[in-house]
Amino acid sequence: MANKFRNLSSKLFHLARSSFNRTSVRPRMSFPGRGGFSVARPKLWGALGALSGAAGLLIYALETSVDASSDCVHPPHQHWNHSGLLAALDKESVRRGYFVYKEVCASCHSLQYMAYRNLVGVCMTESEAKAEAEAITVRDGPNDEGEYFERPGKLSDHFPSPYANEEAARSANNGSYPPDLSYIVSARKGGEDYVFALLTGYCDPPAGFALREGLYFNPYFSGGAIAMAQAVDNEVVTFEDANVAASAAQIAKDVCVFLKWTSEPESDERRLLLIKVTLMSAFLIGISYYIKRFKWSTLKSRKIFFIPELEAQAKKEAKEAAEALRKAKEQECNKCENKNEKQE
């Protein structure tokens, strides 16, 4: 498919170049009304359109060829409730996803860009978020005596990292570094579809695929070999809501919604702002259009005609008026000269 698009784009490019070469250079001419340039040079516009279409097809062909050459399976698209233009995140799913992260993912992955205060008003009340923050211990200081001390966490504290540094993280994971999950949905192509497919896509390797010790097969991961073991399975956690089944798909879905929120905490506010701006703009544009039509109605509705006979008649009348004015001035001058002669 990519080769077909490339061939088509090359043909369009050659066609556009030949159109440029065939375009003759004409003297500039003035045409009445608008669109004189487009009337004078239609081939140039056609060549520009052909070039634009060829460039678009070439970009699409390159994009599809890159996707086709990927070394992993493309994640299938899931129907998320928050994927619509005016859809909001499911706050209950975000709350369950935080619980899954705390129980399953927090032992390896960090959320260094998220603070406990971000949970307030989204999936927890202020008292619940304070209780979550106080469950951790934060090294703070120095105090008045210049010493560091341990204190309970506060709402302003960020989520703790499971490891002291990158070297400790690699040492505990056979040389692999677990990525931070704060913006993982925005950072990976496919977004939450990729994360969901990765969490639920573990399977046995195909025949002939050799796995090193400490690696697991996942067709959605680049190369197929991933250092993270399967973390999501049926009944791996127990939800507070007994009506929600703790299946692997439900657990993966909730943690994906939570990571979508951590990647874009202000997404719901942006959608709400979009609704407000759209409503206000519709009202203001209607008022502005009415005022414009009202103010410019006299200029827009007037008609100007050019008739050669009337122009010739107007020139003749102007010439006669100028001649009459010249004669009147001569008569006045003659009267003044006659008066002067009589007085002498």
From TrEMBL:
The keyword Iron applies. The keyword Nucleus does not apply. Its cofactor is heme c. Binds 1 heme c group covalently per subunit. It holds the Pfam family Cytochrom_C1. One of its GO terms (cellular component) is mitochondrial inner membrane. Residues 307-342 form a coiled coil. One of its GO terms (biological process) is mitochondrial electron transport, ubiquinol to cytochrome c. Gene3D superfamilies: Cytochrome c-like domain, Cytochrome c1, transmembrane anchor, C-terminal. It comes from the Eukaryota. Keywords: Coiled coil, Electron transport, Heme, Iron, Membrane, Metal-binding, Mitochondrion, Mitochondrion inner membrane, Respiratory chain, Transmembrane, Transmembrane helix, Transport. It is found in: Mitochondrion inner membrane. Heme c binds at C105, C108, H109, M228. Its main location: mitochondrion. GO terms for molecular function: electron transfer activity; heme binding; metal ion binding. PANTHER family: CYTOCHROME C1 (PTHR10266), CYTOCHROME C1, HEME PROTEIN, MITOCHONDRIAL (PTHR10266:SF3). Electron carrier protein. The oxidized form of the cytochrome c heme group can accept an electron from the heme group of the cytochrome c1 subunit of cytochrome reductase. Cytochrome c then transfers this electron to the cytochrome oxidase complex, the final protein carrier in the mitochondrial electron-transport chain. Belongs to the cytochrome c family. This is Uncharacterized protein Cyt-c1L. The lineage of its organism: Eukaryota, Metazoa, Ecdysozoa, Arthropoda, Hexapoda.
